[in-house]
Amino acid sequence: FLSWEEIREMKAAGLEFGAHTLNHPHLTALAQAEQQREIGEAKKLIEDQLDLAVKHFCYPYQDFNQETKKIVRQAGFLTASYAPSHYDLTFFWDDPYALERIAIFGEISLFKFKLLLTGDYWRLRSYSGNFLWRKMISLYRTLHD
Questions:
Q1: Which of 4, 26, 57, 69 could form a disulfide with 77 if both were Cys (CB 3.0 to 4.6 A apart)?
Q2: What's the pLDDT tens digit per position in 35-47?
Q3: Cα–Cα distances in Å, from 135 out to 123, 124, 128, 138, 141?
């Protein structure tokens, strides 16, 4: 999706990059050696291309288990994250190799972005009917006043 030149430009602007495997597989479906290759070689490739230490990993498809977390740690990553279907507050000290992240895509509105960052989006989705509508309007007014 990005060229190495674009990534280097983003790095120069202060963005940090992590790894996400070589081929975006479901890691738990792979043998241990193949998981090690996917994770370790992705880290090495990015480090070689950007001349920096890659410290963070993200599991493709939110697919990981204890063995995968162990492989990620052994590869030299400090943290690993996934994007769950619902969010609960996690802290680094809970498990640095199972941190929740919020998936943000290009078509997201600024309003939904704000709701995701505060956690309100998922609370609102749990409500139903007219109550949801009233809550959304109230929240919108709160955010924009």
A1: 57
A2: 999 999 999 999 9
A3: 10, 7, 10, 5, 10
